[in-house]
Every structure is written in C-alpha cells, then in structure tokens.
Amino acid sequence: MAKRVYCLYRVSTKQQVEKDDIPMQKQRCHEFAADKDDWEIVKEFSEKGVSGFKVSAKDRDAIQEIQKDAAAGKFDILLVFMFDRLGRKEDETPFVVEWFVKNGVEVWSAEEGQQRFDNHVDKLLNYIRYWQASGESIKTSIRTKTRLAQIVQEGRFRGGCAPYGYKLVKNGRTGKKNRELYDIAVEPTEAVTVQKIFELSDRYGYGGRKISSSLVEEGIVNMRTGEPFHYSSIQNILRNIMYIGILRSGETQSEIFSELQIVEPEQFQRVEKAREQRSAEYEEKCAAAAQTVELADGEEIEVSRPDRMCPRRNVGRTLLSGNVYCGHCGGRIFASTARKSHHAMNGEVRERIPIYKCYNRTQHRDLCDGPSTYRAEKVDQVVDSILSGIFFRAKDVKESELLKRQITSTTTAYQKQLKAVKAEYVKSSKELSKWEGLMLDSIEGTCVFTPEQVKKRMDVVQQSVNDLSAKIEDLQNKATETAELTEEIKAEHQRLLSWAEVYDGASLEEKKMVASYLIKAVTISQNYGIRIDFNITEAQYLSGMEMM
Hints:
By secondary structure, this protein is of the alpha/beta class. The chain has helices at about 15-20, 20-35, 60-70, 95-100, 120-155, 190-205, 210-215, 230-240, 265-275, 280-285, 360-365, 375-395, 400-445, 450-480, 480-500, 510-520, 535-540, and strands at about 5-10, 40-50, 75-80, 105-110, 115, 165-175, 180-185, 245-250, 250-255, 290-295, 300-305, 325, 335-340, 350-360, 375, 520-525, 530-535.
C-alpha cells in the first residue's frame, strides 16, 4: 500500500512568489517522491508571503490544517523542500516537527533527508538545525534593517506604494540587477488636498470623521479611487511624518528634504500634539500628575489638570473645552446645554442654551459646595473680551521691548531659583560632612549610631547633594541660554500677531483652538468670579498679569 504524502511549500516574501520559488520547491519535492517506490502525493499546501521566523505555527492556517489531518491519520509523510519551510523559530519549530513524528507522521526534506528522533543526538540535531535557521533569519533581518536605514538617510525611497500626495518617478537610477529603480516626488494636485487636511485639523481642530465630511462638502475626493476619503485614511495622513520631508525606516529617520516637504514641521507638530492630547491614553498618563491650586476660599488642594494646547472637544457652542475648572472644589467643569424655558406654552419651541457644569457638584454633591451650573454666554464673553484685548495690545508692543522685559523677568526668576537651590546644596553638603565625621566614631564604637546606620544616611544625603548639583548646573545653563529663549519669545509674539489679524472675524471653532492654545486654565467660582492662567507668558503680560 502506497504511503500517503502531504507536501508543504512556503515563501516568506512577495518577491519570492514572483520569482517562482514555490514551483521550484514543488518540482523538487515531486522528483524526490517519484524516486520512492511506494510514495503518493495526495495533498499539497502553499504558503505565500508567510514568514517562518515572525509568524507562529498556531497562526499559520496550513500548519494547523496539516496537524489536524495528522491527528486524524489522513497521511503518513510530510515532505518539504528544506526543513526551514516548516519554520525558523528555535523555541517552537523543533517541537512542531517532533509532534508530527510522535503522531505517526514521518517528516522528510527533499534536500536533507528524514528527521528522526531515535535518540538524544537526533533531538539535539533537530534543535540545532532550527537554532541555526533562527540565527540566519535574525542576521538577515539586521542586514535588511541596516540597509533600509541607509537608504532613507541617503534620501532615497525604500520601496512600496507612494503615500497620498506623492508619486513614483524614474530618474535613471538602476539597482544591482540593472533594473531601473523608482524615486519619490511630490504630486502637486494631491499635495493640495494633504495641505487642506492638515489645515482643517490645525486651524479648526477637526478629527478624521469631521475632516472627511468637510472635504465631501467641498467636493474633494480621493483622486486615486474617485471616492470620498475614509476617516482612517485621513488619520494615517495626519500621523505620517513624511509630509514634512522626512523619510523613515523603522526607528531610523532622515533629515528633512525640502523637495519632499508638503506641510511645515511646526504645523505637523501642532497636529500631532493635538491628536495626542485628545487620546484616552493622554488622560490616563496625566491622571497621576498632581498640581497644587488655590480655591475660592483660600484653601490649597492637589488636583490633576492635564496640560493641553488644544480643546478637548471642538463641537458645541461654548468657547472653552477641557481647560475649565471649579473654584470651589478644583474639579473639572464640562460644557452642556439646558432649556431656556421650562414652561413651554402654545407650541413654543424650548430653546436650549449652552452652560458649564461642575462635574463634582452634578455627580458627587458632597465634594463641592459651589454652584452646579454657569451660563456659558457670560463666561465666554469675559474670556473673549480678554483675548481680544490681548490681541489689540499685541499690535502695539515693540518686539525689542518685549524681549528685554521678558528675558529680564525670566533671568531674574532663574537667578532666584538658583539662589534657593544653592542654599539647599550648602546645607546638604554640611550634613554630609557631619555624617562622614560620625563614620569614624561609629567604627570606633564612640557613636550612638552603627556604621550601617551612618552609611545608609550618608547615601541618602549624597544622592541629595548629587541631585542639587545637577539642578544647579541646569539652572545656570538656562539662565545663560538667552538665545534660545529669544527665539521662543519671537515665535510667541509672531503667533499672537497672526491671531490678532483674524480673531475678531474667526469662526467659533477657530476661536476655540486659539483660546485653548493661549489658556492653560479658566477657574470659575460663585457670582461668576473668573481667573485665567495662560500658557503663553506674553499673553499673561498683555492681560495685565505678571509674566512669571
């Protein structure tokens, strides 16, 4: 009776599929089986583009089906071109092979013969074979990653489909096999749409779905498909660093190539930061960071207030989102709506008006003794008026005077901190000297502390001295690095001037973005007491507050 043979062929890349590697494996296995008098190939499996190193056997459909048939006794021999076609995982593949043998299936390679398990030497050789195969895969992976990293650093396209906004062009460059290679270039018509997508995200704070619907309203479609942009495609565009002219391969990034740049790096960074700050992960990350704030009654408490430069949500009719807090409990205030009229008569439509609500007062009344709601119109009018005043005064501020005032203020603040840290350093150094003197006494037995106790305290004080020394160096550097500070102040001032030109006529979405960028926190208390803390120091100054 003929032995029933299953054949498995596998290639790990699409290039191997195109090069007819599987037909080569199939032909060799058929020739090998034909040389056996009692072998009959009854079933064949082909895995195309499946890595034997990266993909586990439990995730490979062909292996799972073959194992199922082996357990059912449907075949007698498993034949492969070479044993590494079964896999290249040193911690898995040897045991898969052994499993087949234990279940009555002979495992053969057309090039390497039969894998047996008659003794410990067979088991060791089986393991060594796949350990070597795994090592080869690792070395191949390292060589590939290194070469791809070199390619992008040289400013050349590493291959694949061109992202939207780019096109593949041939510039006469050839590869090792004399085949003409593609370079990548900006596709002007598509690039305009990419710029529009970033503008909607940066200027209005829109997410993927809102951008998609806005593009549809303007009659803009994906030129490659003729269909509207899917929101997931827009999200992929917003996170692709290539649009600022940087090529990437894994963790390796190139310098910025201006000829590939579609959006400005500053705009990309703002969009990236906005996307991050709207994520649930960001809220969780910031939850552990506590800040000390003063309540309306003078009490100081610790609260969690995530730093954000964009609104938490950019929908609704309120100006503020994600940066509004209660002055009585320190908790978050969120935007909502309420009925303007509670007694509708004669078919009157009940109008809903925007309000701000204290979360603690609404959900946990025992945690807050302040009002539960505030009319958003009153709060927003105050904030809007302050912002308009800041932009009005910004036009009259001379950049030179602003730089002088702000640099002086900042340097003074650093010097004040430096003085305090140096005092702590002297104090800790004296304490360290005292404990060093006590160490000899403790060894001689004339001290109330044991050497272990003295050493333990010395380590703590020494760490404190080291930390204070590093902090002193950091503050000294900051106090002297005025050039970097100057550029930051100039950028802030220019940003304020650009907003000043458009703020009064801006849409609510645009005003929300500006307000969120400028304002760190708005604290509301009873009788509409409003305190504003700014992200930008110039805004604090122009609103009549101290800059530091």
